[in-house]
Amino acid sequence: MIQFVPKTVIRHNFSQAMSKMYQTEVPLYKELIDLVADINSDTLEKDDELKRQLTNTGELERINLERHGAIRLGLPSELTTMRRLFAVMDMHPVGYYDLSSAGVPVHSTAFRAINSAELQASPFRVFCSLLRLELIKDDKLRQIALEILQNRQIFSDGVLFLIEKSEKEGGLSSDDADLFVTEAIKTFKWHKTSPISKAFYDKLLSQHRLIADVVGFYGPHINHLTPRTLDIDAVQDEMGSRGIAAKEIIEGPPRRKCPILLRQTSFKALNEAIIFTGDGREEGYHTARFGEIEQRGIALTPKGRSLYDKLLNKARASLKFAPEKDPNAYYQALTETFTAFPDEYQALYNDGLAYFYYQLNDHFSDKDTSDKSVQSLLDNDILRLEPIVYEDFLPVSAAGIFQSNLGEDTNPGYEGKSNQDSFEQDLGIKVYDECDLYQAMMDKSLEECLAKLG
Ligand code: OOG
Ligand code: NI
């Protein structure tokens, strides 16, 4: 019988290969990684409580691994195959994000591992967007764009063969797994040449920079990778001191004692030389690739999430200017508004705002455990709570990341309806609901504790 390589191992190797490729392609990204690693070790040295928490949840070991990357696809058939490619590594589509209302003509999901053990072993995720061609108003342009996309093949024969083999046989042998990583990575590499003419590129650009980024290239180059930082404010400041052009504001919630959801920032996309080959050889430029960092906090329940959305909107609405115009005033408005969001883990738990793991304290066997109600086990210090980290994305933040890396040409928003059904049809399956997954993690942790208590 063939011995299959665990899918988690393939995912880990894939993320390492992707990181290596991107650091070579974008040397500034390597600088960012080094900066983040420095700040993470400083932060851990200063904060024992954080270190204890990360040890208990098993995250300490994976702290300096990249947490996500992002790609943009052009056709439904590309999305279907991409879903199958990620399934080889046990990465499944979680969540549906509609970015069209924020002026970005895509809808998206995130491919990631879906249970605690798998996330622990390799947390790598890919935010994957599909261009919504139907939002291009110009009929002729849309038709030509479609034909160009239909003429490209973003997957190598080798990877297509191995995807099928893994599906048929249930896994890949060690040699096949190595080959799979090599072949899969090819899809995400950068191309210095574009198959279209510069004039057509400019036409696409005038519709939306993102349309040019997808239709103008041979494949869905990885457009950023994102390590996890333990102190995003420190990295943002330090980028400034080191002369790295940072995005103006940190997206997401304000700095808090108990971090929630996700805060993100990035360095601005580079302007890179391209040779357009659609009409002879023409020199030009394209702006797409950047480096991002993220700081993650606890996952929120639907109740917590709706409070977050409400407060974020309130803070933004209270400003008479775009947040980017005066970051400090924006942070101050955020901080004030978010005083309405409890900032103690116990309160987040009591109010049902966030998801937690239940864990047994070390000394539990010395205690009276006859009353097995959760409340009494918590009160008696037999059970403790540890935050479940948010593993997903935020549409308002994602739109901010997109915009800041697509140049200044802001778009007021598309009227096209949000269309999860059509996205899922293109994907070939339904996306997982992230809240169901967090709830399952929480429930399972309790079951395991109760089983140990007998
Ligand atoms: C994806 C932007 C979204 C995030 O971290 O929110 C994203 C893109 O620019 O393609 O990666
Ligand atoms: Ni990102």
Automatic annotation (TrEMBL):
<dbReference type="InterPro" id="IPR009770">
    <property type="entry name" value="HGLS"/>
</dbReference>
<dbReference type="InterPro" id="IPR047869">
    <property type="entry name" value="YdcJ_bac-like"/>
</dbReference>
<comment type="similarity">
    <text>Belongs to the 2-oxoadipate dioxygenase/decarboxylase family.</text>
</comment>
<keyword id="KW-0408">Iron</keyword>
<dbReference type="GO" id="GO:0051213">
    <property type="term" value="F:dioxygenase activity"/>
</dbReference>
<keyword id="KW-0560">Oxidoreductase</keyword>
<dbReference type="Pfam" id="PF07063">
    <property type="entry name" value="HGLS"/>
</dbReference>
<keyword id="KW-0223">Dioxygenase</keyword>
<protein>
    <recommendedName>
        <fullName>2-oxoadipate dioxygenase/decarboxylase</fullName>
        <ecNumber>1.13.11.93</ecNumber>
    </recommendedName>
</protein>
